[in-house]
Amino acid sequence: MKTHYSTTTKGFKGRIKRRYSDFIVEEIKKNGEKCKIERFDNQNNENKKPAQVPENSEKLEQLHFDLEKINTDLTLALKIISRFLGCSQKRIGYAGLKDKRAITCQRISIWKPNIERLEKLNLRGIELRNGSWGKKRIELGDLKGNSFTITIRDIDLNEKELKKRINKCFKEMKKGIPNYFGEQRFGGMRQITHLVGKQLVLGNIKKAVMLYLTYPNEKEENEIKKARKNLKKTKNFKQALKDMPVKQKYERAMLQHLSIHPKDFTGAFAKIPKKMRFLFTHAYQSYIFNEIINKRFETGIGLGLQKGEPEEKGIPVGLLPGYESSFSKGKIGKLEKEILKKEKVSFKDFKLKKLAECSSKGHRKEIVLFPKKLKIVKIDEDEFFEKKLKCVISFELDKGAYATAVVKEILKQKEINT
Questions:
Q1: According to CATH, what is the number of the domain 38-134?
Q2: pLDDT digits (tens, 9 = 90+) for 88-128
Q3: Is 99 a catalytic residue?
Q4: Active-site entry in 22, 41, 73, 99
Q5: pLDDT given for residue 215 in this prediction
Q6: Extents of the domains making up the chain
């Protein structure tokens, strides 16, 4: 995907997420307190203890914990916890999703947990601690932001030049950078979530399902690539079910359904968990949002507030289209119309007749991101890349912002290598 920059500092080659501890995310609660990483970034992991449950003298129903995890998707982590406790995953609340390939810590809530089971909870790659009872469930958005500590590796610059470039970029960033949605919004290595979402919005459910099942990626294992390629060629769902590896559980669930009901693509898509289905529409909205930012740069408008444009505290808010959306006035409205026309979609298309749970009313989001507490933590020799440097940086972002936007602004690379 295209990216434009608001800083003029020269970039440099670098890579992130070489190790899980190279990407640390600590949630900042509404009161400003940080959920601190305490375990998985430490080489000595012998002191793991089961979850400690505090006394519940007020007989409250919501038990809150810091959840620290390593290289684990949040949805999977909550599924593992709920299975261990023998309860529905719906009992667990959280404020926001966190990166998988990372070490992350965030606050979660569990409604009326099985205390006896909870005190025995000792799971690999997952730890619960700092328990406290509360009156309310933790809901999406119940956070102030996130703190990031990121290691950039494989840097071919001397320390003096590296410091100079990063510090200059940090200084420029204080004026704001594009608030792009990050790659994780568009799926894993295949980056197709928004493409599937577009087909859903257009009402092409069969195309959406086949795209999800057959779209290839060179980084995938050969067995998976072969299964996708053969299905695209033969349309043989029963054979594809035999070919698709067991770990591709969503593909297999859809193929199992299509093996019995070969024309029921709506039913096949519904095999994806309900909590995940809406992510496809949201990913497509995010793609359009990013394209609007790109168009602003390409037409020379940039990130500045324009006449007639919606704003919050003087900051432009970009379009995430939905069936209740309306266009901006002036040149920004014209730009929004051009992009939707190019995409061949309208606002009303976001109200899906089938798969209604994938519908969206629409929203607007600030197009400018202001990173806080930007800091070079340390620069050192890179133990993985000979004669190269590594640099550890830290910063804070408000909720809903992506750390990759900051890293891209520093590196000025089309794609961030891992």
A1: 3.30.70.3160
A2: 999 999 999 898 899 999 999 999 999 988 888 888 899 99
A3: yes
A4: 99
A5: 93
A6: 1-32+148-176+370-418, 38-134, 285-368
